[in-house]
Amino acid sequence: MSSGNRLPKVCLKEMETLQKAQHKNVVACKDFIQDEKSLYLTMDYAPYDLRTLINRMLKFEPDKCIKKAKFCKETLTRNQLPHLPIQ
What we know:
Blueprint: H1 9-20, E1 29-34, E2 39-43, H2 50-56, H3 62-78
Antiparallel strand pairs: 1-2
């Protein structure tokens, strides 16, 4: 992990958590590097963007989306990562 000490602690924690995340729906983050002006992430190749995947979904199921959002919120909270309020 090539991070230096210039990033805020919360950002470093988020990057480290992303590196540990192993799920079929999460693009793996292999490493991150920072220079004076930029932060670079090395991630697995994802053949699609989120918009394309959403557009390809055949049907939208609100109950499933709500369950997944709650699961994501619980995971972020458990790992002490900041997140926007999810109602």
